[in-house]
């Protein structure tokens, strides 16, 4: 027993550290992508659905892997000297789940974490029963075996940790997504500010959405990092798979939100993550019978019964975006590209729609509709024009060969800063080194974005 306990404690500590540390958002997302309902038999999907509550799912997963180790010892009638070898398989099963990363969205397996574990347990029980009919081996104490098994335990743990998918952008997307689903928009922005590496387009889109929800697009958008870092996974429409319905729903494009949630449900199963948006869209469209059907399905889950409680706050902010014809005119799965261009090219509508049109025109650098949108919003700002719109007004006027409309309340500090940029650009030119030199002073302005941020790949 004195040799068994240290191995078990070390494995439990390792597994819980990884699962409840860096991989906690991955566990939570796994739970949302697991189609288990309470009127079904308690299968591997039941255990995996518990990842929705990360500490519970992590404890269940770790406990099952500990059982695998002890089942091997029992099945093969091993003494304690060999016990370290019994942990190689649990480490392998651990890494089999934690290495998946983005592939958790496209796997057709219902419960890729627990299914191999439970089948392994069944096989070991059967094997143990069969081997029970044979004479029990007489193991002699071997100190070198004891040390070798300890070394193999450590190596297996190192390999499992190394194979666990801990890509920082992937985990940040998940943290931002979960905060957005909870309506914690400040948390989304906090995560975006903490990032030290180039973001993916999914992170950029979630940051923009949070700024729109908090009413701070006009003052802060271009202060956040831009980027189009590749997803650390085989090529696929990862932005659409991960946050497509979420973005379409919160921007009021209900037809697309419903379409992609339904298509993914047909492709990958009745996952709670998809049912949530099907229910939200049906309720917003006034389709009560359909909404009630989805609500009953969500009520049969273990951890998603309360998602409907947040809808009232969500719909209040979404309804002003619904005063247009929501047509499925084709996005080819390019969610960000479609949203940017559809809003940038739109005219009229609510104040929220006009501001989205103005901002998305700035993002796409399509400035043909700038002044109509700007002037439509001017009375709503009550004398305080958001900083990025002041910057854009100065720049557009300069590009069009004139000066801003008289009496616009452009802050003297913004005017002076713009003049410094014009002078510096004329003096330094536009080579790569000078672009980098201008970033510290002007990198948080629309001017810098317009002139120097190029080559981003929307998706």
Question: Care to describe what's here?
Answer:
This protein is mostly helical and 459 residues long. The protein has four domains: 4-166, no CATH class; 168-227, no CATH class; 237-322; 335-452, no CATH class. The protein has 23 helices and no strands. Helix 1 packs antiparallel against helix 4 (54-75), helix 4 (54-75) packs antiparallel against helix 5 (88-98) and helix 10 packs parallel to helix 12 (238-250). The N and C termini lie far apart (56 Å). The relative contact order is 0.08.
What is the topology?
Blueprint lengths: L3 H17 L3 H9 L11 H6 L4 H22 L12 H11 L16 H17 L11 H21 L4 H14 L3 H10 L6 H13 L3 H4 L17 H13 L3 H15 L3 H13 L3 H12 L11 H8 L16 H10 L6 H14 L5 H8 L9 H13 L12 H17 L3 H11 L3 H7 L7
Helix pairs in contact: 1-4, 1-7, 2-4, 4-5, 4-6, 5-7, 8-9, 8-10, 9-10, 10-12, 12-13, 13-14, 14-15, 17-18, 18-19
């Amino acid at each position: 027993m004195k040799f068994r306990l240290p191995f078990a404690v070390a494995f439990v500590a390792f597994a819980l550290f990884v699962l409840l540390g860096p991989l906690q958002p991955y566990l939570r997302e796994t739970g949302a992508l697991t189609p288990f309902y309470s009127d079904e038999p308690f299968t591997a999907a039941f255990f995996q659905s518990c990842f929705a509550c990360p500490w519970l799912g992590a404890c269940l997963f770790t406990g099952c892997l500990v059982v695998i180790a002890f089942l091997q010892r029992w099945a093969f009638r091993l003494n304690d000297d060999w016990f370290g070898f019994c942990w190689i398989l649990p480490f392998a099963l651990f890494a089999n789940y934690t290495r998946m990363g983005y592939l958790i969205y496209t796997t057709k397996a219902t419960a890729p974490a627990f299914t191999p574990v439970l089948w392994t347990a069944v096989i070991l029980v059967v094997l143990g029963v069969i081997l029970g009919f044979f004479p029990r081996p007489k193991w002699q104490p071997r100190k070198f075996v004891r040390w070798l098994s300890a070394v193999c335990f450590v190596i297996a743990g190192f390999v499992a940790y190394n194979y666990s998918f801990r890509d920082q952008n992937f985990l940040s997307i998940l943290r931002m997504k979960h905060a957005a689903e909870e309506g914690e928009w400040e948390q989304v922005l906090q995560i975006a500010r903490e990032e030290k590496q180039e973001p993916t387009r999914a992170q950029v889109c979630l940051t923009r959405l949070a700024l729109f929800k908090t009413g701070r697009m006009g003052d802060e958008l271009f202060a956040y990092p831009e980027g189009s870092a590749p997803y650390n996974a085989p090529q696929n429409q990862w932005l659409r798979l991960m946050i497509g319905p979420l973005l379409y729903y919160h921007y009021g494009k209900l037809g697309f939100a419903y379409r992609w949630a339904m298509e993914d449900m047909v492709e990958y199963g009745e996952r709670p993550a998809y049912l949530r948006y099907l229910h939200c869209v049906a309720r917003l469209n006034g389709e009560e019978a359909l909404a009630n059907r989805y609500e009953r399905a969500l009520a049969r889950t273990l951890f998603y019964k309360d998602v409907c409680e947040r809808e009232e706050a969500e719909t209040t902010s979404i309804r002003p975006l619904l005063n247009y014809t929501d047509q499925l005119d084709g996005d080819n799965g390019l969610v960000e590209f479609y949203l940017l261009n559809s809003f940038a090219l739109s005219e009229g509508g609510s104040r929220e729609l006009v501001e989205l049109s103005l901002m998305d025109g700035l993002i796409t650098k399509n400035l043909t509709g700038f002044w109509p949108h700007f002037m439509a919003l001017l009375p709503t700002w009550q004398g305080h024009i958001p900083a990025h719109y002041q910057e854009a007004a100065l720049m557009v006027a300069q590009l069009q060969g004139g000066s801003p409309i008289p009496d616009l309340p452009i802050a003297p500090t913004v005017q002076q800063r713009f003049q410094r940029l014009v002078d510096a650009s004329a003096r330094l030119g536009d080579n790569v080194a000078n672009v980098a030199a201008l970033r510290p002073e002007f990198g948080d302005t629309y001017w810098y974005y317009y002139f120097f941020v190029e080559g981003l790949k929307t998706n």
